[in-house]
Design brief:
The complex is a heterodimer of chains A (418) and B (89). Chain A has 418 residues and is α/β, with parallel strands linked by helices. Chain A has 10 helices and 18 strands. The radius of gyration of chain B is 14 Å and the shape is globular. Chain B has one domain: Folate-binding fold (2-Layer Sandwich), CATH 3.30.2270.10. The mean pLDDT of chain B is 94.
Chain lengths: 418, 89
């Protein structure tokens, strides 16, 4: 594989950049693989990469219905954080933060990781207390957390509404300085390029139509490009997990919901951090191009449409304007939607299943992007060793049956109501 | 914008409604021996199909009645609506 560097850039400049190697190949599927990963999104690509890198398993195929990076890895708001209170989520995410910091070097691909810090705003004394508790839990788990008072928040984001007669005055906030953003497409492409170079087949435009299970063991998948045998199969298809589960006669603690995001027209740099509104569900950051990147609530009903409705967008942006009044002056550049696996406790599932050789990675709710490296790393471990790693032991499939829920936000079964 | 036909009030915009989830889920019967799996099925496990889905909506800013809506989850087309206690086809 051609190494990307300033020297290769200069060298290729002499040939008008016409001679770059393709970043990944377009192979025809083989008859059989050791491992098939279904879903060529961030998690699937990362899983294949770590299978090859950490476990030396390179006879691997990624099967993708559309094109790699066309699903949620290209539709999120690029936020990376580990500001969780519960141990299972905190340790998993913080492990991921470490992988994020090394990712550009590790993949030889600039993912533009920008640890600009995230601020969760608080709008009451009670919320300040809750954030202080969360911040303390984070610090006990080795994650950086700073409780900011009103003046400290004002210094960092003076454009927020600090006037006297607002409905939700800003009391302060909880900041994780090491959180940030990364270029989401580059993450998918970087993992794809490295996985491909280690021998992984990335098979696009290949839809899974069924599974071959014999005596409780997976033996292969049926696809639109023919049957492919496999010793192990991993599902990484957040958003479409229920569709594949139905083919396997499995019912999961997951509903598929629609989440929208949007960007404004680009403006000059004014927002240094990722900021979330504490009295509703709205988050905002500024991209390197200057666009304000925004998102918030789910549309609120089961959907596979990848296309949102205006009432939810209006609701979300009303919250945005309550936080940052200047947003009302900006034109909207684009809006889009993605479909989310909403698990019943708001936390994901990375586990084995009752079918031998079939592994499940799903239920990422709104938080899939930041988990990409940790999810890939632990899922690769689970597949290669046929047992869960301690980092994803809490993300078990049967925790809903046994009552070991990870109720990070205490939302219970209606995770889409916040 | 979805327009939902409330059997009590007529066609109204989705702003007046709140979603209530899968309408086909049955609560285990009272006073009967119930396994953990029965509760798991009722509380957590959902089919979440792509296509036709029978679901509950609450007309919270209207007549405040619960209704059942048959809707396509990939096109958002609404086929039919029912009163909460009405039998569905």
């Amino acid at each position: 594989m051609q190494k990307y560097s300033v020297f290769s850039l200069i060298k290729n400049a002499f040939s008008d950049h016409q001679n770059w190697e393709v970043a990944w190949k377009d192979p025809t599927p083989k008859k059989e693989y050791d491992v098939i990963i279904i879903g060529g999104g961030g998690h699937g690509l990362a899983t294949a990469y770590y299978l090859a890198k950490e476990h030396n398993i390179t006879n691997v195929a990624i099967i993708e219905k559309g094109w790699i990076g066309g699903g949620n890895v290209g539709r999120n708001t690029t936020i990376i954080r580990s500001n969780y209170m519960h141990d299972d989520n905190a340790l998993f995410s913080e492990f991921g933060m470490d992988l994020w910091r090394k990712m550009s070097q590790d993949l030889n691909y600039n993912v533009m990781f920008s640890p600009r810090g995230i601020i969760n705003l608080a709008h009451s004394d009670a919320q300040m207390n809750a954030y202080s508790r969360r911040g303390n839990s984070m610090r006990l788990n080795g994650i950086d957390a700073v409780l900011l008072n009103r003046e400290e928040v004002q210094k960092r984001i003076p454009m927020a509404d600090f006037s006297d007669n607002v409905r939700f005055p800003i009391f302060g906030g909880l900041m994780q300085p090491s959180a940030g953003t990364a270029r989401h497409d580059a993450v998918a492409w970087g993992y794809a390029r490295q996985a491909d170079s280690m021998g992984v087949d990335i098979i696009q435009n290949c839809e899974v139509t069924g599974f071959d299970v014999t005596n409780g063991k997976i033996v292969g998948v049926r696809t639109s490009r023919g049957d492919i045998k496999a010793k192990k199969v991993g599902l990484c298809v957040a958003g479409s997990t229920n569709i594949l589960a139905e083919m396997l006669n499995m019912t999961l603690p997951i509903e598929t919901h629609l989440l929208q995001a949007c960007v404004s027209e680009p403006v000059k740099p004014l927002l240094d951090h990722v900021v979330t509104f504490g009295a509703g569900h709205f988050y905002c950051s500024q991209s390197d191009k200057g666009e304000m990147v925004m998102g918030g609530d789910l549309d609120g009903y089961n959907s596979y449409s990848q296309r949102g409705n205006l009432p939810t967008l209006q609701h979300v942006l009303t919250e945005g304007i309550a936080m940052f009044p200047f947003l009302s002056k900006l034109k909207m550049l684009r809006t889009w939607g993605g479909i989310m696996d909403m698990s019943m406790d708001g936390s994901p599932i990375i586990d084995k299943t009752h079918i031998d050789g079939l592994y499940l990675n799903c239920g990422w709710c709104y938080g899939g992007f930041k988990a990409t490296p940790a999810s890939g790393w632990t899922f690769a471990h689970t597949i290669a060793q046929d047992r869960v790693h301690e980092l994803n032991a809490g993300y078990s499939l049967n925790r809903f049956n046994t009552g070991d829920l990870i109720d990070e936000k205490g939302l219970g079964t209606k995770t889409w109501i916040s | 914008m979805l327009y939902i036909f409330c059997p009590h009030c007529g066609s109204r915009s989705q702003n007046e409604f709140v979603y209530g989830g899968d309408a086909t889920v049955k609560r285990p019967e009272l006073n009967k021996e119930i396994s953990d799996q029965d509760w798991d099925n009722f509380v957590y496990l959902r089919k979440s199909p792509r296509g036709k889905h029978l679901e509950l909506w609450h007309h919270i800013s209207g007549c405040r009645q619960w209704i059942k809506v048959e809707r396509d989850t990939s096109t958002h087309e609404i086929f039919k609506t029912y009163k909460a206690d009405e039998l569905t086809e």
